[in-house]
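Entry 12.
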Amino acid sequence: MEKYLLSREIVKFHFGEVYAQIFWNLSTYGACGFKELVKLSKVSAGEVKQAVAVLLQQNVIFAYEKGSGRVFRNKPWKLDGEEGVEILFEAKVEEALLRLRFPRFIQLCREYYGETGEVLCQILLERGLLSFEDVIQVGVTQGRLKSSAAADSVLHKMIEEKFVCLAGYEYYEKNEKDVSSVSSGMKRKRSTDDAPSPAREADMSQRSSETLRFVQLELYRISTSFLNRILRHEAFSDLVVHTVRENSRMVASCFRAMLSLIRKEDECFEGEQSVPVQRDAILDEIRNQMPSSSELVTVDQLNEALNVLQDDRYNFISGIGISSFVVEIRMMRQLLKQRATEHLILKRHGTSGLRVYRLLLDKGALEQRQLLEFAMLPGTTAREKLYAMFRDGYVVVNEIPSSSDYKSSRSFFLWSVDVSNVFTNVLCHAYKATLNMLIRMKNLHVEYSRLLGSNLYCVSEELESVPIQQEILERHISSQSSNMNYSCASLELKERLEKLRQRMALYEVSILRLDKNIMCIRDI
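Predicted 3D structure (tokens):
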């Protein structure tokens, strides 16, 4: 339930109350038609149509035809009501939760493609769905891109390397004048000595007119799944760096090279292992990633690093045959989840609570007396920690009766850890904490806007006047706040605004940290 509440608050924070209400109706009631959605939302059809257009554009909901399953990218109500056509809408809760990760996506694009890549990523995340030309045009028009040629090159590279993906097509009808001129031009081009018959020429003219009447426009968006994959790889790399001590630099380079090779081929992280990579390919990738001034990596150094990664203490990779290796995806995912959980237990219950948790994981079910002996803690402290962890859902107790009358005095009480239940509780706590921080940050935004006399997070209007909706999300509140004109403000007002801005920045950082824990437990 916390996940749905958090996704609703994210939509409300980014778009507004009406959008959040529509999203909430779709996430709680399931698939709904347009008329049913209007009744549930209790607002006008025009407002629902505008909100649905924005949410479709931002990939927070999706629309499809009942029966055939045909998916629509925008404005599907044009076909709604025709004979045999029924359009249904559904919420995409996971995509709404991914909006918390947008700042990290922008940072990734900056690391790989510089400032131009960062601006292109911001534009695509703000607009949701754009054609290739519109992405560059928006950046140049707003003065965020210095060179259209450089932006064109970077955007092509981002598409080639899967940072930006083709999301669909939009069809629009060309002007009749343009169609006729193109058709006549095609006729003149075919006028040779060996001219076709008049009947065939008329048929070709009619077919060319039909094909040219509707033009296909490719629409692009940020590939959130691929960027998520990069963040997962970074989490795997950090795990290796913080775990392996011997020859750590070479081991980390070797493991990053393996992840780089499997990144574009491995589409699923639900499997046991990654796709296999060859030893020679790993060596070439390491040499490509290292600076030209550094010494070349030898085969012996690579073999030593691969042996460390295959060691029984770690088992991060496994060998297949003589020269092929795979990454143990499932094992690393489980280890990351466990480490994130232990970090949270350490923060909430201290070292003694973490010791109790690890003991129960290692020994299995134990009586309270046995647990106190193994933990080597004072009886009062151990009991307090044990019952506090039981209240938070980190440990469970099972009653095993020794007689048929089920009396508690004759029963054994065994303490244990239900790992799947622990992961679920940790995830719910992270969702709840993130939700609380979003609400607090929204209140700070309201106070900030009241002091400035302007609204910093409004949704733009007139969506029907252009084929691509206007910008509906203002990113980087802190950078916008710093560019405000304070010349007319008093010193006291400046201090209050600065304090609010600092508090909002702290909440943003805290939300990003919580989202990293959510990614480790849920997405990895």
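Annotation: Confidence is low (pLDDT under 50) at residues 176-197, 207-212, 454-488. Residues 273 and 328 are 5 Å apart (CA to CA).
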